[in-house]
Structures are given as C-alpha cells and as structure tokens.
Amino acid sequence: MSIKGLDVSEFQGIIDWDQVKAAGYQFAMIRAGYGFGTLDKQFQRNAAECNRVGLPIGVYWFCYALTPETARQEADGCINAISGYRLDYPICYDIEQATINYAAEYGVTVTKNLATQFVQNFCSRIEARGYFAMFYSNRNFLNQYFPEDLSQRYALWYAYYNSQFDNTRCGMWQYTNQGNVPGISGNVDLDESFEDYPSIIRKAGLNHLNGSIPKPPAQNYITYVVQPGDTLSGIAARYGTTYQTLAALNQLSNPNLIYPGQTIRIPEGGAPSARYYTIQPGDTLSGIAARFGTTVGALQRLNGITDPNLIYAGSTIRIS
C-alpha cells in the first residue's frame, strides 16, 4: 500500500489547501509546534483548513527536550495544541540533530539511552491520552541514537531522500524535501504512507474519532497567587507545565493578561522546578545561586548573563 502525502510547517507560509487536495494528495503531516509549548505559527490555520477541505492530517512536534520529564511535558503541550482538531493520522515526535545541538548548548549530552527515553516518554504520554504515537528519524540517527527494537514498539516516520526505498521497517517514508505542490510556494517535503492509518486508528478507537473533542483527564490542582512581574509562561516553567495548560485550566482567553493578586490553578504534582526560576523583586544572582545549590558563574553561562549585578524582576532564568 502506498498513500500519497506531504508535510508542512510555518516555513511553507500560507497554503491553499483546496489546491493541495485537488492535486491528489491524500494526507498531510503538519507541524503543531516545538519545545516547551511553542506553537507553529501556521498550525491552527493549516489544521483548520485541512479539516475544512476533508484532507486527513497527523501532526508532528519537534523535540527540544533536555530530560525525559521535559519530553513528557512536550507531549502535553502538543496535546493541548491539537485539541479540537480532527486527526486521522499519528502524532509524531521529531527528534533530529538540532535536538542534540540544542541540548549541548545547555550542557546536556544526548546519549543513545537519553534519546530513547525522550521518545519513550513522549510517545507513552501521547498513548496515555488516547492518540496514536509515532517518532521521526533518519538512517544515521537511527544507527547512532536508537535501539533496533524501538521501531517495533512505536511506528517510525523514516526520512530517506532517494527515489528508491531501502526497505527500512517503517510506516511512513519522507522521500524528498524538494517537492513541488500546487497551492504551496517553494519546496515541500513529500511522503508515502505504507499503512492505512485512518483505518487503524479508527478501529482502535484512538485520536477521539467519535466526534467528541478530547478533554484532559480529571486531576487535582494547587493554587498560586500571581506576583508583580509574573508572566504565565514564567509560572508554567516554574511548575513544570505549559502556559497553554494554565490558560485552558483557568479559562484565560488572553494568556498575556494576568494580574498581581489573581489566583490561578496549577495541576497538582507541579512544584517549583529547579531548572527554571522567575526573578522576584530584591533577588540577586548570588542569592538565587545559593538557594538552588549552584554558582553565579554557572547561572551566567546557562543564561548568557554578562553582568551578574544586572538582572530584572519578572525574567525567567534557567537554573540547571
């Protein structure tokens, strides 16, 4: 079986999806976002337009994880982003060399074991929320960072730019990044799916294809009183969640609009993270370093701070 598809992100700009469908493409993999809850600028339009024209979609989320726990948090950010859209294809975790380079900037060496944990944590979280999980990789990355049996546990979207397939075990093949598609300006990635994912997903009862909009599982909450200088993204970073989660939980239509003294709910189990800290009035870098058991020099290196005496209340800094 070979099903004709493509994948896109904000870099393809404004897409005419009516033309794409008319050209015979049967599915699209759309970038939903990346890292700690950052949406692709064109995701909402792309997803809504594909749903409108009846073109089946899946999504992918680019990995900027530094720990297995942050990979799980990236999964939550992805699920928050796609809630309300119809997905007939998998949710895919995209882990590439840029992931490794990003981690290295923060002093994290991504080993084979750590890369595998990233995929396992992301995909298991996706599955726990009732969606079909997949991961994306190329041949060199598979050889260097993943065990052979990982593609037996999770579906693989395989990048191999060649006119002839090399018979790698996978469910989907990205065979070029220089495709030309009506309705899209410039080059675009083209894909073939070897599996009828809409049928597989529908028969398994995944991706909430019964017409209902998926909702997060019931959970308990703690409360936090907003302080002067707080931002929702800063609070989310401190408590190991995403600003989208907090906005949805507290029915905040504008996540940039919160007020000192306002009480917001935070998923229980979140605790101020040692990796991030929102600077409070009166804080000093030496005081923050002492509080978290690190050094001023380490904080400067992690955050690109040239003058340790010049920090600002409300800014969120990385601790470790």
Automatic annotation (TrEMBL):
Pfam families in the cross-refs: Glyco_hydro_25, LysM
Sequence ranges assigned to domain LysM in this UniProt record: 222-266, 275-319
Alphabetical list of InterPro entries matching this protein: Glyco_hydro_25, LysM
Protein name: LysM peptidoglycan-binding domain-containing protein
Protein source organism: Faecalicatena faecalis
